[in-house]
Amino acid sequence: MEQTPSETPQKTFECQLCGLSTPFTYYGQKPPNTRAIVLLEECFVTKDPFCPDKEKFLVLGSTCSLCSMCVCVGSDCSLFYTKRFCMQCVNKNLDQFPHQIQTELAKKKQS
């Protein structure tokens, strides 16, 4: 399919752990068409396809603050604790996280 000058190629977000791959519309902390929303991290964001409201969006993922791996927000792939961490870095540095997070992750592994 030929691309017309008015079309821009879609950028794709891909989680390097689970392989989730989907187009994203914005990367940053202040998604477009939002009034007073500032995200706590630089995120890959897309418009919510289930909502006609332009202000609604979905956060797809971000980069790990330790290894810079691109990861989705799924609990099997990443954890947000003041910053985004991929689960590989979380597991390598588990003793550096608060006891409550260590306990929650241990419960998750058991189930």
TrEMBL record:
Instruction: Output the InterPro entries linked to this UniProt entry.
Output: CDPF1, CDPF1_dom
Cysteine-rich DPF motif domain residues are 13-105
Q: Name one Pfam family in it.
A: C6_DPF
In which family does this protein belong, per the annotation? Belongs to the CDPF1 family.
This chain's protein is named: Cysteine-rich DPF motif domain-containing protein 1
Which organism's genome codes for this protein? Menidia menidia
